[in-house]
Here is the input.
Amino acid sequence: MTELAEVVATSELKIYEGFDDMGLPEELLRGIYGYGFEKPSAIQSKGICPIKDGHDVLAQAQSGTGKTGTFVIGSLSRVDPTLKRVQVLVLVPVRELAQQIEGVAKALSAHMGVQVYSATGGTPLRDDIKAIERGCQFLVGTPGRIYDLMSRNIISNEYIRSLIFDEADQMLEDRFKEQVMCILQRGFPKDTKVALFSATMDTDVLEVANMILHDPVKILVNPENVPLDGIKQYYVPLDSEDWKYEVLCDLYQQLNINQALIYCNKRQRAEWLAEKMTAAGFPLSVIHGEMDVEERKRRMKDFRDGAVRVMISTDMLARGIDVQQVSLVINYELPNVKENYIHRIGRAGRFGRKGVTINLISKDETRARNEIQDHFKIMMQELPSDISKLDM
Here is the structure.
């Protein structure tokens, strides 16, 4: 089994200070600057050109530091706009992330004449078929829907030049792994380049990386370097789980919240908490993976647009989702998978902005808190009594 300690970043990797220095197509550069990017983030300065230049890539980067821009720009630079076939395939765990990446890719390719589309479960299959047959070149999707389309021979692997796995560690968990492996077993051309991206790299990811990547460029950070420096992490020690609701209501009333995410581990708890707080007069919304697709889409749009300031969610929204105004994350429960703690708190510090995480810790969760602190070499401070001065 591959150990994380054995994987080291590729030495002498060139770092690019500006997008103009990367040899990108002029039409793509117009999209980059039109989107608002001014200079590459750390991962973009290292990761775009290896993809553009035709290398396999294994990349770990802090949440909120520009992973999406890295693989979208790198793979778009390899697209032939005159070839109306799928040339980039991006696999992600949830539809919200797929739609977000679709939006970024459409904006960045606005001057390239590239057709971008996202295909996810819960939407009519015929819409996906029409989009692909019309000449989709950049396709984002969830494993189940992509495998279905491949099985029906709607997607041809023949022209795919870039295969991207975002949130690779989650993609290789039990519920996705079989579908992902079935997709890989369908075979891709020899010149298809593969990139695995995630904020955390566990042994499952590294084992699969060893199987499917050929002499990859490795861009890694150690686990203790993953948490964002701009996110202050606090905890509230509680003798009983039953006290959490009252403490949360108290926090809600005292804090000047721009936008916030409250995390629960299961759908039932998220719905219960939302119903209880709504009945008490607190305006908020709730979202989870078992919700009707159109309802999820509507609630996510309301949250992105700022019509809803507080969202209760399961770990479905822990990864990759970029809502710029989120400044506070409250963990009503610590996640069952410790790596998800980093993904959750990353929602509050996008691209280096300041944010606050508050963890409600019952006695039963003390051990889990200590494990998270030890694993990521972080220290949660006890929440001060005067919380009105928290910098959010």
Remarks:
- DSSP finds 14 helices and 14 strands in the chain.
- The first strand starts at residue 57 and ends at 60.
- Residues 254 and 321 are 26 Å apart (CA to CA).
- The domain at 225-389 is CATH 3.40.50.300 (Rossmann fold).
